[in-house]
Amino acid sequence: MQVFNEAPSGLQVAPHEPRILAAGYQIGVREVSFGQVHDKPSLMLALMSGLAITGTFGHNWDALYDVLTDPERLPDRLALLLCSYTQFRSHHPHLSLDLETALLDAQREAAAQGRQLWLLTEEADADPDAW
């Protein structure tokens, strides 16, 4: 099943070549790399970089939610590609739980606004034939 054929639903495994597939569906892609994240400050910096947040950002979960649900900041159809997320989640379970709460709340609010926010996990060393 092609992930972009369905409405976004929680965290989903990214398909092979997600950027190319998203382009075919006219879906914007933003990539957040978790490879160098080891605490909340480095997580917020990774999110700022991946989401291209400029200006003021509160470096907290509410600020992240606000960015992800603001139709002026992000496209109506967006895939947030979470790179190396499984490893991050296993090393930082409490931090990933807080992050997932903010992401899933934002996904639900985006849907209520008539927008789509896919949350896709991608592992750098994953075997593409396994998808």
UniProtKB/TrEMBL annotation:
Domain of life: Bacteria
InterPro entries cross-referenced by the UniProt entry: Barstar, Barstar-like_sf
Organism: Deinococcus arboris
Name of the protein this chain belongs to: Nuclease inhibitor
Family: Belongs to the barstar family.
Membrane-spanning parts: none
Limits of the Barstar (barnase inhibitor) domain: 29-120
Cross-referenced Gene3D superfamilies: Barstar-like
A matching Pfam family: Barstar
